């Protein structure tokens, strides 16, 4: 029996099924969204004989829509976006007419001529719509045609969902690659910075990193140096900016600011087309990194800003490190110089102390810094005369020590001349007044003991009066005769000298104000009376023991916080 020939309807169904299968394979295998959308439109327009069609897709956030593709004169522009408001999907209807859409959504298509809307949906979400105009000639679409398009849209929805997923994965991979590149950049720059100690080299690496990594040609790095706002790096900029405007930039609160957001951007920024300001903070220090447009013309992304913040922090930290290193080197240099100065100063003090019979002499000097302005001396001008000197230069440190050295030199030059001690003090005063600043003074006491007659002649030029224990009378007194401080004024009133006849058991304690003005926690001074009491109680002991007793009492009183140079010179008359 011969086989019957298939009907036209059967052949058409087979053809449509084959078309769907071929299209399904073609679309699903493609991960190109543009390819899927273009083929979907072309197949639908060819099948339905419609003069125009379009595809709209939802934005990723689901709040807006974008026209992805349009064929024919729809009046819509590809890429345009619109936000018609909330949109509820109707999963039971595979094809909607314009009037079945939500009113706000339908209003966007009223002038387009598009009347039929096929939802492009997966099992979980509505992706968008395939929009079509009525058939050419005004004939209605057949049930077969609509079913074909509905099936094609279902297949396309799967393909479109897959392509979107692939696109997101590719985007994520690109972002990850960029992050890896940024991390590698930060690692390399950090390693470079850590190996550098020269500030100019750090800034050079930072300059080329900005130019190479960010592709910017105009930028600046602004911070404070010695309290003043200064550019430490500039590239491709012209014009000037005021100090006030610099300060305003450094007071920016936000971590990142685009210059168009500033209420009143300085002309320096606009003239140089600076687009973004990045704040960099390190404890109490801050800096501003300003950058012009990227050479690529692309705007600064959030990732770019994060990279700039990281680069800025690395650079600023390294720059601060160079300042600290310079300070450390300078400090070490100063400490070395002060150590040398202290060594030199120590050579100016007599060692060992001369101690001709019957004198028992002890002395000490404790500078509050490495070098100080206190001075003591004991020198034999000849076999008969012994000079004992103590002085305190105003201030501390190097300046005071230099003035002290000058005084020591004058004493050593003048003492062998055996001049009148009061007159010599006047000459010393005139020299110091003529050769030192007006704010530098010296409190000065010196005395000359005659080893034969045991007469001690002294002159006190504004110094703390030495405590004198008179063994004959059994009481203490003060050696006050003299005149004003050295270097305060020219010698208009002659200095006076005093004389003391020394006997066995007599004690003289010379000291600077580091002893008498040492303070306890109640802000009470140690005072000269306490010194006199110690001398009166322990006058029978040696000069060394008396000196140590006084020092121990002062140290206990102020808990070791002297606050000034401490110098003491003690002599006692032993039996001959």
TrEMBL record:
Record-annotated membrane-spanning stretches: none
Superkingdom as given in the UniProt entry: Bacteria
Keyword Hydrolase among UniProt keywords: yes
Key words, A-Z: Hydrolase
Membrane is among the record's keywords: no
Ranges of residues in domain PPM-type phosphatase: 356-573
Gene Ontology molecular functions: phosphatase activity
Record-given protein name: Sigma-B regulation protein RsbU (Phosphoserine phosphatase)
Organism: Cyclonatronum proteinivorum
Native organism taxonomy: Bacteria, Pseudomonadati, Balneolota, Balneolia, Balneolales
